Amino acid sequence: MKIAIIGGGISGLTLSWYLQKAGVAYDLFEADTHPGGNLRTWAAPGGYLLETGPNSLQLSPELEELLADLNLTSQIEDAAAVSQLRYVLRDGRYQALPGSPPALLTSGFFSLKAKWQLLKEFRQPAAPIDETETVAHFFRRRFGPEIVDYAVNPFMAGIYAGDPEKLLINKTFRQLPALEQAHGSVLRGLMKGGSSAGRRRIITLKNGVQTIADTLAAKLANYQPGTAVSAISRAADGSYQLELKGARGLEAAPGYSHLALALPAYAAAPLLELLFPAAATALAAVHYPPMSAVYSAYDRAAVAHPLNGFGALHPKAENAYAAGSVWTSSIYPQRVPAGQVLFTTFVGGTQYEDAARQPEAAQLAAVHAELTKFYGITGAPRWQGRYYWPRSIPQFDQAIVGAHAAAETLAAERVLAVANWRAGVSVPDCIRYARNTADLLAAGR
Fold it and tell me: Residue 17: pLDDT above 70?
């Protein structure tokens, strides 16, 4: 058995690491000269340490074990305690979002009507399973429209770059329909089962999350950066052959029993066209909306808002320019110069695609204007910068159903999908899925 892994993001790196530990032969090919994919840390001019991808990570058991394996436990930095507070724009000002079902009932964030609908959810019977049900439809029928507009919508836009009217509940939050079916009430199910995931530590690493990718790459014996796979073919014995394009031009890499696609769906699709055209079509349909991360630094004295939280999200109903901002300097104060604050503002996603495609100068000006309006800022920014993702987070909408079905078909041909469009979009999801895949391969399955 020998595995060809295509793509050196966190999924491909993790899969390679656990195959290496298990003594399974592999080669990891990455077109870029740097590992990590979306895990990128930017040391910007002026003393700012920024993340262009995930700003923080939930410390899942799998991530914690991987960090220990890599001798990175001492590099873990917890988010500041204030980060437990989250804000949502409502009626033109930021209001603290209740952090638990009981708090939803006692806070003034939601109307009496919305609170009554929350209480009614305990007595609402489960509906038949509908694989096409969207996130918005699920929450609307169980909790009412206000919860969708001012809790679900901003969360999906800010975290998943998505639109809850399009994202599928069974693909995005599969555990919620399961709770409905098992307990008749989602809230009752959450109360009975607890919410351990919600209590996980929120962390980063001292020198940024890219440290994980860099450390993995340095420990891999068969990692080949700057080497793109330009074509795949199959030999008479059923083994896979790769055409490689690297520093030495075109080369062939024959004799792989399995392929692991640790690539975005749009990058995997062209490689599959000749051998598996139906799968290629399904993968090409997966939507990746554009997204910009805009960074804005100000003197602390110039910002009226206390910034006592993780950040603020913008419901679509408020007609804001951006999807929201993370208050980077509140979560990790050591990442900005003393006496300054820094906002990481997200422009784009499925609900804001036109804004995402604007020129950089227009985005920076629009973000500054909106921050000034909502945070009571005086004066110009100390510094602004932008990182643009033409294709950001894969959307778990109707198109992902076909992609997941294609992945099942490909698995029977010993072509395994291990990217975030298959595993789930979070880093802990990708690590868990890649490790499970490595275990299956090592066991000969």
Answer: yes
| Short-list 425, 135, 134, 427, CA closest to 288 | 425
pLDDT the model gives residue 107: 81
* Rounded Cα distance, 5 and 164, in Å: 33
- Taking residue 84's Cβ as centre, other Cβ atoms within 10 Å add up to 11
Residue in 33, 22, 25, 21 with CA at minimum distance from that of residue 260: 25
Q: Which residues pair with 249 in a beta bridge?
A: 246
Domains of the chain in start order, with CATH, are 2-39+210-287+395-442 (3.50.50.60), 110-189 (1.10.3110.10), 289-389 (3.90.660.20)
Query: Which ranges of 134-206 would DSSP assign to H, the alpha helix?
Result: 135-143, 145-147, 153-160, 169-172, 175-183, 186-193
Backbone angles phi, psi at 359, to 5 degrees: -60, 155
Q: What band does 87 get if pLDDT is binned at 50, 70 and 90?
A: very high
**Tokens standing for residue 158:** 């800010």
- Residue 5 CA to residue 374 CA, distance in Å, equals 46
Give bridge partners of residue 343 from the DSSP assignment: 296, 327
Residue-wise pLDDT for 364-373, tens only, equals: 999 999 999 9
As a whole number of angstroms, the distance between CA 354 and CA 366 comes to 13
DSSP 151: I
Percentage of the residues of the chain whose pLDDT score is greater than 90: 90
Determine phi and psi for 209, rounding to 5 degrees: -70, -20
- Is a pLDDT exceeding 90 seen at residue 199? no
| 197 band by pLDDT with thresholds 50, 70 and 90 | very low
**CA of residue 276 relative to chain centroid, distance:** 28
- Letter for the amino acid at 241? Q
What integer pLDDT is reported at residue 253 of this predicted model? 75
Average pLDDT, the chain: 94
Q: What is the DSSP string of 243-294?
A: EEEETTEEEEEEEESEEEE-S-HHHHHHHHTTT-HHHHHHHHT-----EEEE
Inter-CA distances, 441 with 63, 66, 258, 406, Å: 20, 19, 9, 19
